[in-house]
Every structure is written in structure tokens, then in C-alpha cells.
Design a protein that fits this description.
Layout (H helix, E strand, L loop, with lengths): L8 H7 L5 H14 L1 H6 L1 H14 L5 E7 L21 E8 L5 H12 L6 E8 L14 E5 L8 H11 L5 E7 L6 H9 L1 H7 L9 H6 L5 E8 L8 E8 L1
Parallel strand pairs: 1-2, 1-4, 2-3, 4-5
Antiparallel strand pairs: 5-7, 6-7
The protein binds S-adenosylmethionine.
């Protein structure tokens, strides 16, 4: 089990900004109830990426997997997916998120995922924290997962550098994120126009992030990624997904 480490409070407070309980509650509820269509749209892609992550996990021993921006844990089912052959003997899941109102939804999603019949032994620890200051030692994680979170962090470059820091050499970082469109100028213009409103309404979610550029410049040994469009998802329809290897 990877140790959770205490961080310099000055560093944490720089990125873990003051939050409103009411907004956290509403945002968690909104994420829990409003993302079904999105999750269906990315299901096959997530299955494929999780299979790649699992293929890279150590075999026959416990593996530590960190979800940065755990949220309501919509990814829970992929850890117990019958299609995903689990190499590790057990999973030490660490979910990091600054919104404590996500926890009950995440725990419920994990409980639901466990009923899928998979025998995989997995323990989830939910830790209050932020991507920019991950409460884990360097080179302690066998994988990091990040879905729809780098749009919301305060400092994407620092967040991705932290992901790389905590990964063991050769370990995968899996990501799916919405980004500023590169191939649809009309969409990009709309994303820029509504960016401030989105930040205010959706817990700091930016529509103008160039997340793949950030990941590609972060010093990973390899980055394999694709840009894709999700028809019907408007301002978040331009997405990137892939795996970077530390
Ligand atoms: C749009 S939600 C996505 C949650 C989940 N990963 C998913 O796929 O549904 C963004 C999440 O990032 C979290 N978040 C916001 N700022 C963060 C930060 N600086 N570091 C880590 N997580 C953050 C939010 O609390 C929220 O749970």
C-alpha cells in the first residue's frame, strides 16, 4: 500500500482553494446524475484504455492506482470489467479530490462495481487533495488515471508534473479530457466565449485548455494519444485520450 504523505501546508493552500460546501454538494450531485450520456459515449474508449493500463500493471502483487480528481468515481466499473484481465493480485486504489461531497457517490459507485462478479480484491482510499500537490511519495504509483479533471485544476503543468513524479518508471498515465478544439474554429470560438461562464458555473472547468500539449511537454518517455470528437456534446465535444508512460 503506497503511503499517504503530509505535504507543506503552504504548498497545498496555493492550489487547494477555499470551497463552498453548498456548491460542492450541488456539483457532486450534478456529476452523479448528469453524466450518464457522456459515460456511455466514452465507454468503449475507456474499456480499451483501462485494458492497456491493466496490461502494464505488475503481475501477482498489489498495484497502486491513483485517480486524480476521483469525483463520483464513474470509472469504478472498469477496474472490475470482465474483459480486463487483472495482472495484479490486488488493487490499492487512491482517489484524490478536493471536493469532499464526491465521496459518498464514489463509495456507492465502487460498491456497485464490485457486484459485477469480478474476484479482484480492491481497496479504495479517498484522500482530500489536489493534483498540483499529490500526497504520495515519488515513484510510488503503478498507474495514474485522470478523466475530465485537467480542465479543472488550477495549474495543469504542475498537475501533470506531479503525475509524472508519483509514477514508477515505465508506469502509465491514462487520460481522457475535453480540450480547446484544434480543428473546428467555430467551436473554438464558442469555447473561448463561454469559458468564463463555464469556470464560474462548473467548479473551475476551463474550455480553453490545451491539455495534450501540456502532457506532451511534460517529459514522459512516450505519449500515445488521439484527438476525437463526441457529437452532441457541444462545448466539451473536442476531446483527447491516451496513455503517457513515465
Ligand atoms: C468534471 S469532474 C470529473 C470527475 C471524474 N474524474 C469523472 O471522470 O467524472 C472534475 C473533478 O476534478 C476535481 N478537481 C477540481 N480541482 C482539482 C484539483 N486541483 N486537483 C484534483 N482534482 C480537482 C473536482 O472536484 C471534480 O471531482
Amino acid at each position: 500500500m503506497a503511503p499517504i504523505v503530509d505535504l507543506d501546508p503552504g504548498l497545498v493552500s496555493k492550489y487547494d482553494l477555499p470551497r463552498s460546501d453548498k456548491q460542492d454538494y450541488l456539483f457532486a450531485k450534478g456529476m452523479a446524475q448528469g453524466m450518464t450520456g457522456y459515460e456511455m459515449a466514452v465507454k468503449l474508449r475507456k474499456q480499451r484504455l483501462f485494458a492497456e493500463v491493466f496490461a502494464r500493471l505488475p503481475k501477482g502483487v498489489e498495484a497502486t492506482v491513483v485517480e486524480v480528481g476521483l469525483g463520483t468515481f464513474p470509472n469504478a466499473s472498469y477496474y472490475f470489467d470482465g474483459e480486463v484481465k487483472s495482472g495484479p493480485s490486488s488493487l490499492d486504489l487512491v482517489g484524490v479530490d478536493p471536493n469532499d461531497a464526491m465521496e459518498s457517490y464514489a463509495t456507492a459507485n465502487l460498491a456497485k462495481a464490485r457486484t459485477s462478479g469480478s474476484k479482484l480484491d480492491a481497496n479504495l482510499r479517498i484522500v482530500h487533495g489536489v493534483a498540483e500537490a499529490l500526497p504520495l511519495p515519488s515513484k510510488s504509483a503503478d498507474a495514474v488515471i485522470c478523466t475530465l479533471t485537467l480542465c479543472s485544476v488550477v495549474d495543469p503543468e504542475r498537475a501533470v508534473a506531479e503525475v509524472r513524479r508519483v509514477l514508477k518508471p515505465g508506469a502509465p498515465f491514462m487520460f481522457i479530457e475535453h480540450v480547446l478544439s484544434e480543428d473546428d474554429p467555430d467551436l473554438a470560438q464558442l469555447q473561448l466565449r463561454f469559458n468564463a461562464m463555464q469556470i464560474a458555473m462548473a467548479d473551475g472547468c476551463h474550455l480553453d485548455r490545451k491539455t495534450l500539449d501540456v502532457i506532451e511537454k511534460a517529459g514522459f518517455s512516450s505519449v500515445s494519444a488521439e484527438r476525437f470528437s463526441l457529437p452532441g456534446f457541444g462545448l466539451i465535444s473536442s476531446q483527447v485520450a491516451g496513455i503517457a508512460v513515465a
